[in-house]
Amino acid sequence: LHVRSRRQRQMCIRDRTYSGHVLATSAAVATVNAMEDEGMVDNARRLGEDLFGPALRDLAAKHHSIGDVRGLGCFWAVELVKDQETREPLGAYGTTAPEVKELVAECRENGLVVFQNMNRIHICPALNIPDDVARQGLDILDTALTTLDQKIAIQ
Description:
about 160 residues; alpha+beta; about 55% helix
């Protein structure tokens, strides 16, 4: 790398890994360009509007353990509750209820990896996920939610 001016030298000296470093920003620009070229953002929008949104709202109508579904594109949160009417969380704030851990484990055993935080699970697949694979994951989630509904009904 050849630095020609004092200003350019100062910029290189002051740059940090996470604060606009030239190499990092170049990688970010290349990533955004690739996402545009491959239609990933448009595909994520389509998946959210046509597949994830409707399917997750249908699951919320079917399963009394879902208190809320919210999201956009390929990033969705499903809030798990003891009672759909009161929306009482499955576990106390800052904790993860055993039932949520069991739901996540059942999903994982059947090939679906979901991110979990307290009483929420997050659905956030790759932006280029094929529709049939997304539907398969939603079917796995549906089955795990049926198990969860049954456990909650017993309590």
